[in-house]
Design brief:
The structure holds 2 protein chains of 2 kinds. Chain A has 2 helices and no strands. By secondary structure, chain A is mainly α. The relative contact order of chain A is 0.07. Chain B has 4 domains: 106 residues, Alpha-Beta Plaits; 231 residues, no CATH class; 93 residues, Calcium-transporting ATPase, cytoplasmic transduction domain A (Distorted Sandwich), CATH 2.70.150; 155 residues, Rossmann fold. Classes of the chains: A mainly alpha, B alpha+beta.
């Protein structure tokens, strides 16, 4: 059973990592314009930073 | 290059609101000061449709001197601009965008604050999702046969994971439940909170005691599912709110004040009685006042519901909100903005607000019946088991199993999911719903009252005899009209552009308020306007108002006779037929003259109409109907309708309505066609039907599951499966509103109604 003591914390840690990543994207306003993000990839010029 | 044709649909949707000028001074008033000389303006640009639109908008704005940052938002159809004044001048953002082919207007700073509620819900949802999924993972191992020390360890880890979910995500429900209980009421959140907390408490106790069962998965996944419903509901309301807030404001935010120092642009709140204000042609009157100088015509359609423009000259009393059509006016403010006609309407609205505040949501009414029953069953099974077995722990376990299995997951989702799907359907049809309770109230109405000007009609004249007018004369009329903002001139231009008759602006053109336009080329004098003035002789007093006549005259010789009508909204007639077929009473309440209203009413086949009504008359009429136990849907657009919109059981306004009316209305429709009213009614009826079905499903499921729970056969595994199954069932049923086509049936009914009218 010793592998459980190792794997379960790893699984939970990875889950926490995902949660933290989500919180970070939320705070960075990455969900403010979902349609826009999909459309921006079609823009001709390569600038992805707003001027 | 661009996939969109800016202007085409905007012209339809914005309509007369497009006349309001947005001076650059207004930009300063409406921008947020970010400090360090930097300002942020939020522009609503309704015509952003694709990537190239976004690129064009951003490029246009960023090349303006003074603009430091421009970012277009496609989902919200907005653009955020950060700018710095150059030589005390704001950059002409609106003008630059107009030149690029995009209509835009500035938001007020306060309408753009995104509610913190949204991110609070999303964060709670994320935490609940994370905890529920990990606990479920561990629970599956326990259900598959993990035993002894492993099971014990898994239960402890689950407890550790459940705690943040309960504390962080659960507080949304706990706070709401506590607020309701403190006011002596119950709502849906009360049984949810009790269920979640007791499940967690019991599981924790069992874990400490080393027991075989723990319900941590049930408690957290319940929170997760319910938060999904809550979040979707919030997103729907937010979307509608921001769409309504994005409409152009009809109320001016400032005015040009003339005093000893010259002219200044001043915010409305700083205007004092006695101040001289300049109102340019095309602007709205900012505050109530008296005309001191100038002559013009005023469009009262939004304020009083009259269609015929009112002449204005020195000494005329004017109300805030009137649209100045032809010439500049200097007025002296008679009252401050807060004492104006508009403010009076707002006070009346507050007094009238009744039906809405008293209304109790379906879900709350259901839970008021549901929670006592469920809690009584749980208590009885506890007492029953205790008296039989004398085993405290087993009895409490069974009582809690009853609470978990009846946990109102399905009930909690039954209403919001249907309403979210309904709101999305309406959104696709161009109708914004303010909140879910509006859908519930709309399904209950039995009477529909319409305002006339701007609601049944578009509130602007329309040339009806284009076919019988000589194209040359029409081109000439269009050339003369192209410099004027008078509604009839706009109508002539629209008719001319439809017939692809070119209009070249004319020189030596004069506009005579209340009479018409005059142009001279050499010795020839052209006049376009009122028949008696154009021909230079007295004419017999004819029918005017809802339709009227202009003549185009060359040196006293009539070239063309132009007949205007206030254009009926498309689909007005079929909408009224559809509403009648649903068994609703239909009536008109208008502030316009009796003859004009009677004409339209007979045209639409409505017998029940009232004309020349003051705002208070409309409210009284609705109050009388309400005391007679009638539920009224009020559809109106004007300032004068705003109190009636607030007084009605539920209300609807077109996007072109006055700001106050729009804010008072539960539904705002963006399309020009009146069919939105019937669509909204039918969708809300269907939604009501599905909600009742969902309640029936939830109650039926409980009727089957509760006996098992009372008998003690429910293990955590059964509880989890049953709960998820019932939620999926309810959600799937709600989705039928989106997929099913209940509209085909009606479309054929519509067709037959139309053929009937044609053959009549």
């Amino acid at each position: 059973m010793s592998y459980l003591a190792f794997l379960v914390p790893v699984a939970i840690l990875l889950g926490l990592l995902g949660l933290a990543a989500f919180m970070w994207t939320l705070r960075n306003e990455q969900y403010e314009d979902l349609d826009g993000a999909a459309a921006r990839i079609l823009m001709d010029d390569d600038q992805d930073e707003p001027k | 290059m661009s996939c969109c044709a800016p202007g085409a649909e905007a012209a339809l949707e914005i309509g007369p609101a497009g006349l309001v000028s947005s001076p650059r001074e207004e930009l300063v008033l409406l921008s947020r000061d970010l400090g360090g000389g930097l300002y942020q303006a939020d522009l609503s640009v309704p015509e952003i449709h694709c990537a190239s639109c976004m690129a064009t908008v951003e490029r246009t704005l960023s090349t303006l001197p003074g603009v430091e940052y421009a970012r277009a938002n496609l989902s919200m159809k907005r653009t955020i601009v950060k700018w710095r004044p150059i030589a005390d001048e704001a950059p002409d953002l609106i003008g630059a965008l107009r030149a690029a082919g995009y209509a835009s207007h500035v938001f007020t700073a306060e309408t753009d604050q995104r509610s913190p509620e949204y991110s609070r819900l999303i964060k709670a949802l994320a935490v609940a999702g994370f905890c529920a999924m990990n606990i479920m993972l561990l629970s599956v191992s326990v259900w598959s046969g993990a035993e002894g020390g492993t099971r014990q360890a898994f239960h402890w880890i689950s407890a550790g994971l459940a705690l943040p979910a309960i504390v962080y995500s659960g507080r949304i429900f706990f706070f709401s439940a506590w607020a309701a209980l403190r006011n002596g009421r119950t709502n849906m959140d009360v049984p949810i909170s009790i269920g979640v907390l007791m499940a967690f408490g019991l599981s924790l106790y069992d874990t400490i005691q080393g027991g075989p069962h723990a319900y941590f998965d049930a408690a957290t996944s319940l929170l997760f599912f319910l938060l999904i419903g809550r979040t979707l509901d919030h997103v729907m309301r937010e979307k509608a709110r921001s769409a309504v807030a994005g409409l152009a404001s009809l109320a001016p935010r400032g005015a040009i004040v003339v005093d000893a120092d010259g002219r200044r642009y001043v915010p409305i709140a700083e205007i004092r009685p006695g101040t001289s204000i300049l109102v340019a042609a095309g602007d709205r009157v900012p505050v109530d006042g008296i005309v001191m100088a100038g002559a013009s015509e005023l469009d009262c359609s939004v304020v009083t519901g009259e269609t015929t423009p009112r002449p204005a000259f020195a000494g005329t009393l004017v109300q805030a909100g009137l649209l100045n059509l032809t010439g500049p006016l200097t007025i002296t403010a008679a009252a401050e903005a807060k004492d104006s006609f508009l403010a009076e309407m707002i006070r009346m609205m507050e007094a009238a607000e009744g039906g809405r505040a008293r209304y109790r949501r379906l879900a709350d009414r259901a839970s008021a019946l549901y929670s006592p029953v469920v809690h009584a069953i749980a208590l009885l099974s506890f007492l029953g088991w205790l008296s039989f077995t004398r085993d405290w722990h087993a009895s409490v376990s069974i009582a809690i199993a009853v609470l978990i299995i009846t946990c109102p997951c399905a009930l909690g989702l039954a209403v919001p999911i249907v309403q979210v799907v309904a709101a999305r359907r309406l959104f696709e049809k161009g109708v914004m719903v303010r909140d879910g309770s509006a859908l519930e109230r709309l399904a209950e109405v039995d009477t529909v009252l319409f305002d006339k000007t701007g609601t049944l009609t578009l509130g602007r004249p329309h040339l009806v005899n284009t076919a019988s007018v000589d194209p040359g004369a029409l081109a000439l009329a269009a050339s003369m009209a192209s410099g004027s903002r008078h509604p009839m001139s706009v109508a002539i231009l629209a008719a001319a552009s439809q017939g692809s008759v070119g209009a070249t602006p004319m020189k030596n053109l004069g506009e005579y308020p209340g009479r018409g336009l005059e142009a001279r080329t050499g010795t020839t004098i052209y006049r376009l306007g009122r028949p008696d003035w154009a021909l230079g002789r007295k004419m017999p007093e004819g029918a005017d108002g809802w339709f009227s006549v202009s003549l185009l005259v060359q040196n006293g010789q009539q070239l063309a006779r132009l007949v205007f009508e206030d254009m009926m909204r498309s689909g007005a007639r079929s909408t009224i037929d559809r509403l009648r077929q649903q068994g609703l009473g239909v009536g008109i309440l208008s502030g316009d003259r009796r003859s004009a209203v009677a004409d339209l009413a007979s045209n639409l086949g409505i017998d029940d109409f009232a004309a020349e009504m003051l705002p208070s008359d409309k409210v009284e009429r609705i109050a009388a109907l309400t005391t007679a136990h009638s539920k009224v849907l009020m559809v109106g657009d004007g300032l004068n309708d705003a109190p009636a919109l607030a007084a009605a059981h539920v209300s609807m306004a077109p996007a072109t309505a006055a700001d106050v009316g729009r804010n008072a209305a539960d539904f705002v429709f963006l399309k020009e066609s009146l069919a939105s009213v019937a669509d909204a009614y039918e969708i809300s009826r269907n939604a009501g039907k599905l909600i009742r079905q969902n309640f029936a499903l939830a109650v039926g499921y409980n009727a089957i599951a509760v006996p098992f729970a009372v008998c003690g056969y429910i293990t955590p595994l059964v509880a989890a499966v049953a709960m998820s199954l019932s939620s999926v069932l309810v959600v799937a049923n709600a989705m039928r509103l989106g997929s099913r086509m209940p509209f085909r049936r009606r479309a054929s009914g519509l067709l037959s109604a139309r053929t009937l009218n044609a053959t009549r």
